[in-house]
Amino acid sequence: MENLTLNRMPELEWTCVPAGNTVPFSFEGRGKQRHRDTHELKVHQLLVQVEGWKPVGPVTVDKVGVFFRLASSQPSSASSVGYELPSARVVMAVTLDGSARKLVTVRSALLLTNNLQCPVDIKLENVALRLGDVKTLQVAPKTSIPIPLLYAWARLFVRPVSPVGGGWLYCKEPLHWLTLLQPRQEANDLRECPVINTQVPPFRFCVHVRRDNFPVDSSYPSPTSSPVLPARHNEWVQPGHSIVLVSPLTLLNLLPYDLHYEVKTTRNSGRIKPGEDSSLHSVDPAQSVSFSFWTDGLTSCGEITLNPTSSPYVLHLKLQDSRKRILYVHLRVRPQYGGSLKVIVYAGYWLINKTGLPLIFKQEGVTADAAGQDKEHEVARCAAPLLFSFTDREASPMLVARVGNNLHPESRAQFCHKLPLTQGTWVRRLRVTPYDSRPDYVYVVGVDVRPGRGRYRDTYMVTFSPRFQIENRSSHELIIAQKCFSTSFKDPGAQSTWLRAIPGCWLPFHWPRIDKDQLLCICLRDVPGCNWSGGFLIEKIDSFYLNIRDNNGHCFFMRVEIIINDATYFIVFTDAESLPPPFRIDNFSEVPITYYQTGTQEERLRTSVKPRSCVSYAWDDVMLPPHLTCVAPGGTCATYNMNVLGEGASLTYENFIYIAFTGTFTK
Predict the structure, then answer these.
(1) In what order do the strands lie in the sheet with 460-466?
(2) How many CB atoms lie within 10 A of CB 108?
(3) What pLDDT, on the 0 to 100 scale, is given for residue 229?
């Protein structure tokens, strides 16, 4: 490879790339691989020349990375700008664009990042090179731009983009970066933009400046000379810094409700939606500031003061509802770069109700219910999570729950056994006692307590879910009932306990009678004359087939899968037409054979298979032993264990054969 130098430069074909544009290029033309000399090592390099400076390079683009070169200035007679420029650091960043194509970005070493929530105008006063040379750039929120190389030593002034009919002026003091000379050296500062309307507070923002890990410059300006106008061009401080603009105070709402706030000093107020943040530019993070916070259902009990700090700390905010019940939420104050502060508002516990029942919560040992619960919670399930905190330090740090009183108006709902709010999974029974002699209504719910994920990791998510949840993935409409209520299709009392599951739906399931056999039965509503299936357990992980028959003896197979996730059992019903049956009965004999599951008593569950034919079969009652009884003509029968492979007992039947002698025939 020939080493290219500026003194011995071959004739090259330069490609002009305007500022802000992208031009595709390639090193080699297309051709067949077998026509090339593959043993020759080829290195792809670029020479870069910025207008006003001499070419720099070569730079290898075969590998991804960030490279830089120091470009010398051209003589003023040869320069297109008309005056001599200082030496400048040119950065070439090689990244992957897609899977194979490389993108080479040529920029200056001075980056400005706008982390504000509004666009800003950047005014570049290039007084270091030429008086009166002013350029304005606009930076969108959450974006970064490199400062143009010709304006790398310009004075930087910032202001937010002014709205129509008003706005702010540029900050009085420019952004300083020339004093940071050592790698990874940092500096923080606060800037103010005066407002045109004097009745509005100034726009404040924090500036974080960091020198990147570039080598230390070989020479610096003398202490007596200006850092902007050094004595000689070769001694100019080379840019290699990152400037970040951040809000002085950011409020992050990690509550499930809208959060309202008011700044007491400036009377500025606003609303923050759940999971979003808001930037305040009227406060000074170096001074104490007082706030008031509230939600739509919870009012503030007083002001809370944020003090300047260099280490994070947590404050407790006291809120109350319309019935003076107390709730504590937390404010985590974190210092950020640039001297800014970030305030995170979060709750200790979220109570998430997925049971389909109205639930009421309170701290164990406390007479009043938890804050934020009104009359609507006694009637129906609240879709939004309920915030919870332990308000009585002397009481037990446990949680108790009951169903809403309006679910069974003529009964009394009882609180469940106390529940610890530590990570784990529990099962609780919610009882409702009627005032007469009827048995209790019992609802079994599962409770899963886990810390939140990501930025919600400081909040415990307490999820109340039904112990059983039914998913109908079949093509049939199902009727679901407890076995004790599946004896008739004409009992109105039994029909009131049935569930109807259309295809593709999810349903929470609770036992209508906890004192009866906890067995589930289903019926195909869209099949005329369909009977109930046999009962089966749903509180264990299992997978099996159901055999559902109609009045004509036709069999419909249904696949049932029972899985558990956290504290909930999921019962999934799917069609079995495309799946192989669990059993196939082949009758190779010359007589019909009757078969049925051993232990079944109903005559409709006995089926006959014709000679020289086969039928598919699934158990009519999965709770009975896996035994099959076969009956031959004449009444002889045998029972076979279907879990044991091999030859079973022989099945015989009577076959009467008559032999007649012609001599005995009477004429």
Answers:
(1) 386-388, 349-353, 460-466, 441-451, 424-434, 411-413
(2) 19
(3) 43
The number of angstroms, rounded, from the C-alpha of 149 to the middle of its chain's C-alpha atoms is: 42
Query: What pLDDT, on the 0 to 100 scale, is given for residue 505?
Result: 92
**In contact, 651 and 640? CB cutoff 8 Å:** no
In whole angstroms, how far apart are CA 143 and each of 111, 170, 246? 10, 20, 12
Q: How many CB atoms are closer than 10 A to CB 464?
A: 22
> Between the CA atoms of 170, 173, 179 and 185, what dihedral angle is there, to the nearest 10 degrees?
-60
Q: Which residue has the tokens 């500031």?
A: 289
Beta strand 568-575 with 555-565: parallel, antiparallel or unpaired? antiparallel
pLDDT by 10-residue block (mean), the chain, 667 residues: 46 82 77 57 82 85 88 71 79 86 90 93 88 89 92 92 74 92 91 82 91 79 42 68 94 95 86 93 89 92 88 93 93 89 95 92 93 89 90 92 90 92 92 88 92 94 94 94 88 88 92 90 92 93 93 91 92 91 90 92 90 92 93 88 88 75 69
CA distances from 497 to 44, 74, 194, 215, 484 (A): 77, 91, 70, 78, 10
Tell me, what's the pLDDT at 4? 44
Spatial CA neighbour of 194 closest among 185, 206, 203: 203
Which of these, 111, 114, 10, lies nearest to 57 by C-alpha position? 10
Record the tokens describing residue 20, joined without a space: 């802000």
3-class DSSP state of 366: coil
Helix-, strand-, coil-residue percentages of the chain, each rounded to 5: 5, 40, 55
In this prediction the pTM is 0.80
The single-letter code of the amino acid at 388 is F
Q: Are 469 and 508 in contact (CB under 8 A)?
A: yes
For residues 203 and 516, give the distance between their C-alpha atoms in angstroms, rounded to a whole number: 70
CB-based contacts of 115: which residues, under 8 Å, 6+ apart? 141, 142, 244, 245, 246, 247
